[in-house]
Amino acid sequence: MTHTEAGENEGLLVRRIRNGTVIDHIEGGEALNVVKILGITGTTQEALSIATNVPSRNMGRKDIVKLTNRELSKEEVDRIALISPHASINIIRNFKVCEKKGVEIPTVIEGLVRCPNPGCISNTNEPIRSKFRVLPTGLHCHYCDWVIAKDLTSYIL
Amino acid sequence: MATRHIISIKDFDRSEIDRLMDHARQIDSKKYDRNALSGKILAVLFFEPSTRTRMSFESAIARLGGTSVSVGSVDACSMAKGETLADTIRVVSGYADAIVIRHPKEGAARLAAEFATVPVINAGDGAGQHPSQTLLDLYTIRQSMPIDAIDVALVGDLRYGRTAHSLASALSLYNVRLHTLSPTGLELPDTLATELADKGMKIVNHDTIEEMIGLVDVLYVTRLQRERFPDSASYFNVASSYRITPELLTEAKEHLIVLHPLPRVDEIDPRVDESPHARYFEQSKNGVPVRMAMLMDVMQ
Ligand SMILES: Nc1ncnc2c1ncn2[C@@H]1O[C@H](COP(=O)(O)OP(=O)(O)O)[C@@H](O)[C@H]1O
Ligand SMILES: [Mg+2]
Ligand SMILES: [Zn+2]
């Protein structure tokens, strides 16, 4: 059938899409978190397919997320790097891969995660979005300096 | 020119700190223009009770020829009516030439600076930053010795004590070896210890005050809060073992200085007040020239 690394497995798991985005090479087991980061929930409109723990030649196992009729922006794509730095983004138009790009860890993320510090001003009714600087030690709250060192996805708003 | 705010000591580099302290020393020796801020108004926005910090800012602006306006009390202010801080700040920006703010939430001053059209000075945000305290701590050390190749000890609750955290961060810009003494569970947070070590600071943790006292040039004592301990017996146990007494100080270096952000409770024996090591009242007095330098820095 195909010569891609996922081979037949993936072909069986998810149908080809006409237009949309394929997020490939997600760390095994992180697909649901990628979906969470993208803000896709049961109530949003996208048709979505997810394949998890697909055998991969380079990664052992990988996850794949396919989104119909939605092309991701750079800001959205780069957030994925926070949990899956090797992900690749394939923009599909008329069944063909039209664009292929990697993900870059952003330097600042706004409005994505909630500050874990209950005393932080960003957890009140002030007219601001949460804001974190991305540093090697973790995400640092712009307002109170708290650090999210791990389990970032449990703080997604 | 961009509006200058003073939010966190971490926003400063060493030359900026040194410049502010040089300026404070000049002011301290009475070499300053008493009308430097004449006609200027400082809004004193304290959403949390404080006497010393507030009074020293008010005294600082008055000594420079300016005036201050403030809200009467916390429950009389609009925050109690549910107005956002962002709105309060936008409004107060129209009344004054600078705002000094104390607020119970961490990051409040940073937020205020984003909505203000005049300079904002942080006078304490919850358990967060309190840069004028740090600057006056540094200033007091510098009055006694150059901040270079010295050993500074932090004693007390180093987990929640914001003055200790900010001072440690600032000292990491200098050539300082840090010594710590804190009860189990109240040690310096790991993230901070790592941050300091990454900046090249050497940190030595101690188990008793006796083993540490002879090694250091500065002893920075902070308050131990009873509610941080499981019971009052363990509080009294630790508090008495950390107490600074004249007897303990006989083991100290001759030029050792003892600092405390005040108010103190039992941490320092009142008999120490008479000793040449005691600098905590000097330290609190230094709050005025240091805050004058800060006000001139942002309001001129
Ligand atoms: N029309 C399509 N519908 C769904 N998935 C597609 C489509 N075209 C390509 N893909 C998937 O997008 C990813 C990248 O495709 P491609 O560039 O052909 O492969 P590779 O990057 O493995 O060389 C692969 O996971 C592939 O299965
Ligand atoms: Mg492939
Ligand atoms: Zn925060």
How would you characterize the overall build of this protein?
Chain A has about 160 residues and is mainly β. Chain A has 3 helices and 9 strands, in the order αβαββαββββββ. Chain A has helices spanning about 5-15, 30-35, 75-80, and strands spanning about 20-25, 50-55, 60-70, 90-95, 95-100, 110, 130-135, 140, 145-150. The longest helix of chain A has 7 residues, at about 5-15. In chain B, about 40% of the residues lie in helices and about 15% in strands. Chain B has 12 helices and 9 strands. In chain B, helix 6 (about 160-170) links the parallel strand 5 and strand 6. In chain B, helix 1 packs across helix 5 (about 130-145), helix 2 (about 50-65) crosses helix 12 (about 285-300) and helix 5 crosses helix 6. The model of chain B has no long low-confidence stretch (mean pLDDT about 95). At the A-B interface, loops of A face helix 4 and helix 7 of B.
User: DSSP helix count of chain A?
Assistant: 3
Question: What is the structural class of chain A?
Answer: mainly beta
Average pLDDT of chain B, rounded to a whole number, is 94
Number of strands of chain B: 9
Q: What percent of residues of chain A are in strands? A: 25-35%
Uncertain runs of chain A with pLDDT below 50, 5 residues or more? Answer: 1-8
Measured by DSSP, the beta-strand proportion of chain B falls in 15-25%
Biggest chain pair contact, residues each?
A-B, 19 and 22 residues
User: Largest sheet of chain A, order of strands side by side?
Assistant: 2-3-1-4-5
**Unreliable segments of 5+ consecutive residues of chain B:** none
Give the biggest beta sheet of chain A.
5 strands, antiparallel
Describe the largest sheet of chain B: 5 strands, parallel
Share of helical residues of chain B: 25-40%
